[in-house]
Amino acid sequence: MGSYDVVVVGAGVAGASLAYFLSGKGFKTLVIDMRSFERVGDKPCADAIGKHHFDEVNLEPPSEELLEGYVRGLDIYSPSELIRYRVLGDGYEVDRIKFTKHLLKSAIDKGAEFAGGTYGIEPIVKEGFVTGVITWSRGGGRREIRSKVLVDASGVARAIVRRLDESTWPVRDDSELMDYNITYREVRRLRRDVDEPDVLRIYVSKRVAPGGYWWVFPHSKEGDVVNVGLGVQGGMGYPNPRDLLYEHVLTRSEYEGSEVVEAGGAAVPTRRPARTLVWNGIAVTGDAAYTVNPVHGGGKGSAILASWCISQAITQALDSGEPSAKGLWNANVCFNKRYGAKQAALDIFRLFLQKLSDDDLEYGMSKKIIKEEDLNEVSLKGHLELSVVEKGLRLLAGLARPSLLFKLKRVAQYMSEVKQLYMNYPESPEGLSRWYSGVKEIYSRFKAEV
Fold it and tell me: Do 413 and 304 reside in the same domain of the chain?
């Protein structure tokens, strides 16, 4: 039995960055993970992080040896692939394991401890507070570890918070399978270099990737290596994403004779953030807190931001001796104003896109109902200007699919409404129940109408 100020369950990017942000502040911190140190962060994903995420939390950009490539933009292709939108923005393709190890080692060098091959089994709860965690490891068996703040950074497993009673622990906040994308991806070495290797590609098509999309993310440092994958909406009975990738994508000529470097799949939460990131003695971050972008599925940058906000709140709470929901509450205000409000708006947009047919998507992109610059605004801020939609209505109402345009106008209004609600996130735990009733009411109206 040990005792720590902070125990972090999970050493992916979310957990490692939290330990990094807490390091050097005088707190006794332990990070545990089922993997060894050499394999932390080994979750199949597309590995891209926008530069703006590093800027926002003043985190030093990844050094050359931690990178697989640089990003200067993203192309989005219509179902026919004849229409392309380009959204410019700088970013990085990181080596997920090297990058995560770098964050964790930096924390260890400043005093944090790490226990690999260790599973977080369940929280220890006493008098309405989480006071520690029960762990298990092959070498040490079952242990009780005490904490002032326990952090669940265990990814979609949600190993800790799923053991709490949701009726009294709102930090649990279970999700439906339909709010996940089920993904499969391979890293492949092609026979020739990719054109514009610093541009990521996303392809939308309900026929190929129902409820999701498929992607090609080149590694610009090695122009002949790509991360190619496909995701489908969960809970809908759609085919296995691996089967769809092999049927519709890897049969293309550019993959003939290519070599598989690595392969794997994962579930990705694509919804609004958890209703609260903290409660008495506990916090949740990263995929376990649903901090992923609902539209493009990127989660590393937003996980870093969530962990930064949580680290600020933990520091304040431990310095004041109050690791309660109230003492940790600023984590919610910090994250939702910086990202969660946009994320909730994009969740509305995601639900709308998942209902569109390929014909609707093709029509909308071909007519430039939403232009590239508008899409960039939506992506960065979660804001779809009503004036943009109304202009499209005036110009295109006499053409085909006027119902699509009117729906888009309502979507823009709902996006604005839910974003404003998250920007006005309650300043204390006492306001959470009423605020969350407002969230559910908006979603109920939206799903019934649009």
Answer: no
Dist CA 269 CA 57 (whole Å)? 23
> Tell me: the pLDDT tens digits for 399-415?
556 677 778 888 989 99
Predicted confidence (pLDDT) per residue in 59-103, tens digit: 999 999 999 999 999 999 999 999 999 888 899 999 999 999 999
Among candidate residues 267, 247, 277, 258, the one with its CA nearest the CA of residue 337:
277
Residue 152 sits in the same domain as residue 278: yes
Q: Who contacts 412 (Cβ-Cβ below 8 Å, separation ≥6)?
A: 384, 385, 386, 388, 389
Nearby residues of 34 by Cβ (< 8 Å), 6 or more positions away: 116, 117, 118, 119
Total number of domains constituting the chain: 3
Amino acid found at 439? V
Closest to 375 (Cα-Cα) out of 91, 86, 50, 92: 86
Question: Residue 64 corresponds to which amino acid?
Answer: E
Under DSSP, the state recorded for 176 is -
The verdict on 107 and 249 lying in the same domain is no
279: closest CA among 448, 70, 429? Answer: 429
28-41 confidence digits (pLDDT tens): 999 999 999 999 99
Residue 202 lies in a domain: yes
Q: Are strands 129-137 and 2-9 parallel, antiparallel or unpaired?
A: unpaired
Nearest to 216 by CA among 178, 180, 258, 272: 258
